[in-house]
Predict the structure.
Amino acid sequence: QVRIVESGGGLVQPGGSLRLSCAASGSIFSFYRLGWYRQAPGKERELVATITTTKSTNYADSVKGRFTISRDNPKNTVDLQMNSLKPEDTAVYYCHARLQPSSSTDYWGQGTQVTVSS
């Protein structure tokens, strides 16, 4: 019943900005942690940013100062504001949701393509 739906993504020039949005639904309770991961061609999926119900955040070093993650707890939505985009940010971005801190069950969106190129 849990459903993860991303929106946003697309083609942007280096130095530009994009905003990704994700809606997590299907749970009576708030998701403990929501976040974004990405996977570039030939590389493993990596963490980009996460945020908990208490608004505690975690960012990959490569995006600190450029990306900002936020969430709306009542709506169970999470956004990723991406500024100063670089070609190396090109990847498929996946929304991730976890219901409990120690849960072994992760929920994933289908992904949205972000391409940074001139």
